[in-house]
Fold this protein.
Amino acid sequence: MRDELREINLESVNSTNRWAKEHISELNDGTVVSAKTQTAGRGRLNRNWVNLGEGNLFLSFVLKPDMKYSKNFPNITQYLSVVLARVLENYNVKPQIKWPNDVLINGKKIAGILAETSMGQNSFNGIVLGIGVNLNARREDFNKIDKPATALNLESIIPVDTENFKQELCEEFFRSYDEFLEKGFSCIMDEYITRASFVNKELTVALVASEVKGVAKGVTEHGELILVGDNQELTLNIGDIL
Ligand code: BT5
């Protein structure tokens, strides 16, 4: 737990991740940057995070962990997916995690997570861990998104207050962040698997320039996807389940 939460609340920004990276040298470890609205949100591989406007969550954690924990950095997005699932469960919904870190409700994406590393000339400046959560939207807003998506207000009977949700998420994140840095994926593995939407399913996974098919057996102790194909067992640390 951090002593005090340092928060930066912006009205409108292109991307909270981009803003946090640009200002990282002035920001302390544990700073939370959020914006009421985000005009050019980004996802992985140059994909966009669609802006559903005010009332939704656009947030980046600025993290400056000790390099002695660097082997656990690749799992930080999975850590955040579990943290989010815990918070969502308080709203009486059943979140599921789609490897590696998408969070879904009833098979539709409610949140996306993007970690970016900031490097200086020869140094590590920190990690910017961004999350967008759809909290308040109308069904017609999802026409702007090319894949099934949803928002918490459409799934939960409990009213959703964006500011409260943000505080709950930050509190939950920092409650077990130090433990995560020390122990890595193993400290969330059970919770991750319990909520996994993909285990024992037949999947196609897009890799950088190809696709592989198989049945997902689970994940390794490092959070990699284990995919059993016709004649081979693959362990994937990057990819997109199609
Ligand atoms: C992600 O990428 O899901 C990571 C998104 C991270 C967004 C946050 S918002 C705060 C912070 N600042 C930023 O600039 N970014 C972070 P990826 O796995 O590549 O998924 C992108 C795909 O999700 C898109 O191609 C769409 O199919 C879908 N998508 C886009 N906007 C969505 C939305 N609002 N709700 C649900 N799905 C969406």
Summary: The chain has six helices and 14 strands. The chain has a mean pLDDT of 95. Residues 7-194 form a domain with the BirA Bifunctional Protein; domain 2 fold (CATH 3.30.930.10). Residues 15-17, 38, 41-45, 47-50, 52, 58-60, 109, 112-114, 130-132, 134, 145-147, 149 surround biotinyl-5-AMP (CB under 6 Å).
